[in-house]
């Protein structure tokens, strides 16, 4: 049993999916969500690569703020609350789910996801998640590995200034 647990521990330590040490480091992938502007930025290779319009919580407290870690990714996610399968046009999660560990959750409660309501993007419309257009969440999904840090905040600072403050840009 001890050998099995040691093997699992070593697997977790050497896994390329889970960056080690302080994150983000300059050049690492990093996602910033600014609730004040309803935008999400993808930072990589020491620069802001892309900025997307987003939808955040209907009220300020619905979308938690802080530095989180992506723990789950799913293509055509299943919507548990209303038993709607992935790929169904009525599924409010759209085509991708990028879950992070906000408020001690396991990545299945809060996330960045697509939407079946594209007109909600740019507004305060969600129950706590961050919504993107399906094509945008698909692009982000393809470039952020599990273990990527997600920063959610409300600020008037630029994405570049925030990324520098958090060490993602030198």
TrEMBL record:
Annotated PANTHER family: L,D-TRANSPEPTIDASE, L,D-TRANSPEPTIDASE YQJB-RELATED
Record's keyword annotation contains Hydrolase: yes
Family membership noted in the UniProt record: Belongs to the YkuD family.
Signal peptide range in chain numbering: 1-21
Protein's pathway: Glycan biosynthesis; Cell wall biogenesis; peptidoglycan biosynthesis
GO BP of this protein: cell wall organization; peptidoglycan-protein cross-linking; regulation of cell shape
GO molecular function: glycosyltransferase activity; peptidoglycan L,D-transpeptidase activity
Residues in L,D-TPase catalytic domain copies: 29-153
Active-site residues from the entry: 113, 129
Keyword Aminoacyl-tRNA synthetase: no
Protein name (Swiss-Prot/TrEMBL): L,D-transpeptidase
Annotated source species: Bacillus mesophilum
Pfam families referenced in this protein's UniProt entry, alphabetically: YkuD (PF03734)
Keywords: Cell shape, Cell wall biogenesis/degradation, Glycosyltransferase, Hydrolase, Peptidoglycan synthesis, Signal, Transferase
GO cellular component: extracellular region
């Amino acid at each position: 049993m001890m050998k099995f647990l040691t093997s699992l521990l070593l697997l977790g330590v050497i896994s390329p999916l889970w960056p080690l040490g302080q994150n983000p480091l300059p050049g690492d992938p990093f996602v910033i969500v600014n609730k004040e502007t309803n935008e999400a930025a993808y930072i990589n290779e020491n620069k802001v690569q892309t900025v997307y319009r987003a939808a955040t919580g209907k009220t300020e407290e619905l979308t938690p703020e802080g530095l989180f870690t992506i723990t789950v990714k799913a293509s055509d996610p299943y919507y548990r609350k209303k038993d709607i399968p992935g790929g169904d046009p009525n599924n409010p999660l759209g085509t991708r789910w990028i879950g992070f560990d906000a408020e001690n959750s396991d990545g299945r409660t809060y996330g960045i996801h697509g939407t079946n309501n594209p007109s909600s993007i740019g507004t305060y419309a969600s129950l706590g998640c961050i919504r993107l257009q399906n094509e945008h969440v698909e692009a982000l999904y393809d470039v952020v590995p599990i273990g990527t840090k997600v920063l959610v905040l409300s600020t008037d600072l630029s994405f570049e200034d925030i990324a520098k403050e958090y060490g993602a840009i030198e």
